[in-house]
Structure formats: C-alpha cells, structure tokens
Amino acid sequence: MLLSHQLREEFLRFFESKGHLRLPGASLIPHHDPTLLLTGAGMVPFKPYFLGKAKPPHPRITTCQPCVRTPDIDHVGKTDRHATFFEMLGNFSFGDYFKEEAITWAWEFVTERLGLDPQRLWITIYLDDDEAFRIWHERIGVPAERIVRLGRPDNFWEIGVGPCGPCSEIHVDRGSERGCGRPGCAPGCSCDRFLEIWNLVFIQFHKDERGEYHPLEKKSIDTGMGLERAALVLQGVNSIFEVDHVRPIVDRIAELAGVSYGQSPQSDVGLRVITDHGRGITFMVSDGIIPSNEGRGYVLRRLLRRAVRYGRLLGIEGPLVSRVAAAVIEVMGGPYPQLRENRELILRVIGQEEERFRATLDQGTALLQELIEGLKATGRHRLEGADAFRLYDTYGFPLELTREIAAEHELSVDEDGFREALEAQRERARSAREEQGYLDKEAAFYSRLADELRLQAGEGPLSRFVGYERSEAEARVLALIQGEARVESAGPEEEVKVVLDVTPFYAEAGGQVADTGLFLWPDGEFEVLDVRRPAEDLWVHYGRVRRGVLAAGMKVRAAIDPERRLDIARHHTATHLLHRALREVLGEHVRQAGSLVAPDRLRFDFTHFAPLEEAQLRAVERLVNRQILLDQPVEVLETTRQEAEQMGALALFEAKYGEKVRVIRIGDFSLELCGGTHLSRTGQLGLVRILGETGVAAGVRRIEAVGGELALDEVEGESRVLREVCRRLKVSPLQVLSKVEKLQEELRELHRQVEELKQRLAKGTVERLVEAAEDLDGTKIVWGRVDELEPEDLRQLGDQIRDRIRSGVVALGSSAGGRANLVIMATPDAVARGVHAGQVVKAVAPRFGGGGGGRPEMAQAGGKDPQGLEAALQEARLVLRERLARKS
C-alpha cells in the first residue's frame, strides 16, 4: 500500500525525471492577485507565467500545492470525496510540451508507477476535442467506449477573461456497487461510482472581454491530481477521510467526542467536517491569515465557527479546533515543516478565536432561552424562522441545535421560514459578488497593452527600473493612457497615465508607497503623483501635465523627489529593524502581517497575542536605536529564493518563489527578503520613535513609528509638553510623576465624597417615591421623574426601589445632558399578572422621541426630547394600572 507521503514524493520525482523543476507549495495567500482570496489550485502561483506577465524559472514545473476551496462546503462530510482543504499534485508546461506529452505521462504514472488497473480507468474529454480523443484512443489504447465526451461545465476550463482551454480527466471506476444502477452510468454521473483523480487542462485559447476565443501562439499545460483522492484509490478505503494522513485526525476528534468513526452516519458527518475544516484552518493560520470579518480572514472565521458548531452537535463543549490543529501539525508537520515552526502562533490564534466564538454561542443560548420564555408566556408553540436564522447568522447556532433545544421545551421551529431567510441572504451575497477571474477589467487592459508594447519593443523588459541606483533617468514615452484607451498626447492640466522605457520611480509594492516627482522636457513638465506596476515589467506613472504637451515617443528626464524618497527609505529600513527587535523582545512567533512605509510614518502589523507592556515597547525602541547608533551597513544581495532561505532570510507570507530576490542585510541584526528602497547605513536614520501600539484583529497588533527628523520633532514636542506641565504644576521634570499621583489621590477622595452624597440623596429619593406609590391590590406602582441622572444611575435607583417594594412596578424618568431616559422594572409576581416592561417602554418611548425595549422584568429607552418625558411617564402609569387591574 502506497502511503500519502510516498505518493507525494513519487509524483514529484516522476516529473523531475521528465525534466521538470520541483518547487515547494506556495502560500494559501495568492501573491499580488486581487482576483483571488485563496490559493484554490496548483496553477494559482503560476498565473503570471500563463498570462505572459512574468518569465518562469523553468518551462516545466512540478509541485504539491495545499489548496482551500469553499464552493462545495455544504457537501463536505456528506460525500466520500468533497473537501475544502486538499493537496493538489501538479505538472505545468509554459509554452513547452502540450497534449501528447501531458496525456502520455499521466497514463504512464497512474498505470506503471501507481499500478492502477487500466481496465478501471475512464477518460473524459471536451465535446469537440478530437485531438485529445486520438491521443487517448490511438496512442494510449483506451477503448472508445471508455472515453466520454462532456460539455463546457465539466470539461472546459475558464475563469473569466484570460487563458483557457479544454480539459481531460482520468476517472477510476470504484465498482457498480457504488453506482446509481442506471444503465448509462459513466463519468459525469453524480453518484459515487466514478472518482475523478486527475484533471489535465490544455491551455490553448485566450478569452477576451467580448467572450471570443483566440488560439494562443504558445500553448501550455496545467494539471492537478488530488492527493487525497489518489490515496483513497491506492489504499482501498471508502473516503478521503480514511486515508493514512487524514484518519488519525478523524480518530482524535472521535476520541474528544466519545464516539467511534463509523458508529452512525450523523456523527460521521460531524467528524468529517471538523477534520476537513481543521486541516484548512491550520494551514491558513500558518500562512499568516488571521480571522476577520472580510476577505480571506472571513473564510477562516467561517470554517472555524462551522467546526465549533459541529463540535457542539457532537457534545464537545470545551476547546476543540486548537486540539484538532495540534493533531494536524503532528500528522503533517513532516512534509510541511512550517506547521511545526509556527505551532505556537497557530494554536494561540485558533484558541483565541475559538474562545471568542464560544462566548458568542453562549450569548445565543441566552437569547434562545429568552425567545422560548416569550413563546411560553404568550401561549405560542413555534419559534419563528426569522428568529432561528438570527441565531444561526449572528450567534452561530446551527438549526439542528436550535431544533434540539426547542424540542426540550416541547416547541417546534419554523424551518421553512429559516430556509427562506437563509436563501434570501445567499441571494444577496450572490448579487453583491463580482465575478472573479484571471483578470479584472483594468488588468485585462494592461495585459493587452503590455502585449502591444512588446510587439513594438521586441526582446527585453518594457520598463527598465533603475531607481535602486539613480534618482533621475533619461527616458522615452512608450504610451499615454486616459481611462482605458491609449492617446497620442496630453496638454496642460490633463490627467494621464504614462509608460516609460526607463524609470527611477518606485511603484507601490510591499507596503512601500510609490515615489512622486517630475518628468521634464525643454518646454514642459509632468507631475507624477502615483506609480503602479500592473505587470512585472510595466511601470505606469499617474499624474497631470503642468505645462507644455506630452506626447508618445518623446524624450523626457524622469526625476523623483529625492527628499521624499530618503524619508521613505528611512522608514523602510526602520521597519526591518523594528521587525527584528520585536522578535527578540517578544519571541520568534512574531511575523509581519502587513505594513505601510510612507514618508511621514511607518505602520507595522505583526502577529502577537496581547497588548505590549510599556517596558516591552521601550525595549523594542531601545534595540532599534542601538542599531542606529552602531551605524550598521545596510547591504543588498541578489540571489534565488532558495538560497535566501538557506541564509535564514525572513520572507513575507505572500512572497512569490522561483525568481531572483533581493535580500536586505543590516549588519548581523536583520536579514529579510525585500524589494523596497533602503538607506546605505543605519546611522542615516538618526532616531526612531514609537508613537503607539494597538490591536487590529485577533492575534494581530500594530505599531506606528517615525524616524529621522520626524522622530526628533516628536521628541521635541513631548519635551515642550513636559516643560509646560512642570510650569503649571510648579515642579521639576523628575517630580512630575509624584505630583500627578498626589493629585489623582485627591481626585479619588473627591469622587468618593460625591458618591457618598449621591447615595444619601438616592436614599431620600427612594423614600419619597415609595411613600407616594399607588397600591393596587397589594401590588405597588412607583413612578416619578428624577432629573440629572444618567441611564446607569437611573437603573441603580430603580433596582433599589424594586428591592424595597418587593411586589410591584417601577417607572422612572430622567432628563440629563439634553436627553430623556426612561426605565421600567417589574417584580416577578407583577410579570405573572401581565406586566411586560419591554412592551410598555416600546409603547411610550415615542412620546420623547425615543425608542427602546427589553425583557418583561426590565426595559429602558432613550430619546432626544425631554419635554415629552412627563407625558410618557403618565402614559406608562396608566398602561401599568390597566395591566395589573386586568389580572386582579
């Protein structure tokens, strides 16, 4: 039996023997690709090569790529083959070999290397791909009856505008006992008999914005074999959850739940979902994704919450996903050592998010209990679908859990209403979601422009960047763009985008903002306001013509703003020093999670689990400034990514591989991959001052800092403030702290005296209001207006009165700060007699321009019209009297 790690290695070695370059799997965060949230296929890291935007390190590449896809999330756990996380084995050709080699090698691998029975293998091809049919049938010898032609949805690969083409899939016949029994059952049927294990995509067309297909001059190959599916077949198990590197995780979850896998279909679904999601969550966090409410962070949060919900259905109440992640690291840390390296980060991020979600679930439980009490009080027996959906959507309650708790109280759930609300939400999401493809509209334009310019320029880069060495360059205007159209010229005050053949301008990338500056020619001037890089060798300068006419083909002198560049370089070098210092002070789990390098400041986001203490911030700042005092050399090394990693260079999680990279070395203190601009020595920084530290997401902190003259300005500003404080307090700088502590103590004493007086006043108010209470058959109604009380003080007064009367209702109003506040409280026996504080508040709050509500025993409201407060209190009194009298 071939184990999964053997299968992975066998595949990669096989294609190395066919002249392929083996590369490591890329991050789950697509590199500089706004069209994709996550890496969902082996080809994603190679999109620039397929698009011709970059040159691959080798025309043939093979990888094993971890992937996350969520479109089939509702099928996960219910079938043998669906997953959101999987490993994709792939071989790729960029304008090198094509169909015949791809098909021949695929057949050789599955039949000779894996030893699969050719009689069990079926092939699908695109409807009119006769070339693929001939290769499979005539060269390989697959019988025509086992070659199935399928239509565009199944066997034509395309994602919006860009490269596309027909595909051919290899399916394994798992036996008629797994089929649907229909006579025509074959690949393409929705039953479990035929399992697709390998998809060969023949990229031979380019689809344009009009939906037209154009043959590509250089055709390419993109294939993907699902490792888990292939292992399923080779190991003779029933599902991807039973293969050797997944089953241990299933068993660990079963142990936590106190069940056995295979014990019941219902519990098996939960075990499978938690296993699948736990694997994906672990890899996502390891790659630097943090839970959030948008983008890929939301995908992570959704998977984690879904796993926790299924855990609850299995009866697992305590920490779950973090323990699943530990099992994933143990099982998969061999082929993916970064999981072990990032173990602390992974477990801390998951643990914190899981703890927050459990608290949210507890809030949902309280809300459900309140809804159940409301149903019982009104004699109803069914929970509304909208309420069940709110529990699901806001608090993470699965419908099954809501149904189970409701049943314990002999209540049903409007499941049709729930499904309607769920579908309405999905429809809103579908309407809001833009089609995500290879290229958005703007990117498609620049891809086309690059192709046109290459035809004109011939070999070599379109725009040659010389900004590392020079601040000025003589250049020729290759193209002018307005909107999404090329123009020949632009006059004064016209905004235009410009492509040069040579540029010293740094384009925004890696958190560093773009350079600004000027293009100059004898009778004209163009102001550069921004620079972007839509393709690897295409610099686009955004700006406006100040004077003269700028035309295509002209020669200009391109000059950046050198002072601004120096400020940016200071902050970029400071960012590297800050990153290293944080790792030394806080630990090696610290990783960059985002940054901004601008002329006026730097912002650095990093993984950490708690706010930094003042002593830690000062230690980090001191470490950075020590390196500045040492005047360390800042060296730039150009090498391959593999060599850089062997040197120990830190890399951003989204950095791409396989190309020449720049390494920035600062003495023996810092070593990082970076494409930005830097100082030549740390002494040029002068000083770094940390301005503050905050949290931006679960497990992510942010530091803002300034360097150079801006740091001096900050120190001088603080010094001015300190001198002024000393002047006002009439103390020396060293005496300020003790003086402030003395003033704080005096202030606390004054607050204590004020609170004492307020309590005395409240006691008198309680006595006065209770004495004036109405008595309705032994149940008191206390009402009145007590101005200048904030909502919290008003509630406390109400609590005191309610405790004093023991049986009755309290209605209090207050005007404070130009607003009206109302609180109504009822004792349990008053609620039993028909009083519902929330309903009364809702009815009378409009009197003072407010709104509110609450529970039967307590409710409150605030409004902007204090003049209506008296009328609201009177109306509340009458309503309460009526409710109590009705039940007498």
Describe the structure.
The protein has 25 helices and 35 strands. With 888 residues, the chain is an alpha+beta fold. Strands 1, 2, 3, 4, 5, 6, 7, 8 and 9 form a 9-stranded mixed beta sheet that branches. A 6-stranded antiparallel barrel has the order 13-16-20-19-18-22. Strands 30-31-32-33-35-34 form a 6-stranded mixed beta sheet, with helices on both faces. β6 and β7 (162-173) form a beta hairpin. α7 packs antiparallel against α10 and α8 runs antiparallel to α9 (295-313). The N and C termini lie far apart (81 Å). The model is unreliable at 433-438 and 653-658 (pLDDT under 50).
Describe the structure in brief.
By secondary structure, the chain is of the alpha+beta class. It has 25 helices and 35 strands.
Termini distance? 81 Å
Contiguous helical run count: 25
Low-confidence stretches: 433-438, 653-658
Report on the biggest sheet: 9 strands, mixed
Proportion of strand residues: 25-35%
Query: Overall pLDDT, averaged?
Result: 90
- Which structural category fits the helices and strands? alpha+beta
Number of beta strands:
35
Portion of residues in helices? 40-55%
Broad shape: globular
Radius of gyration: 34 Å
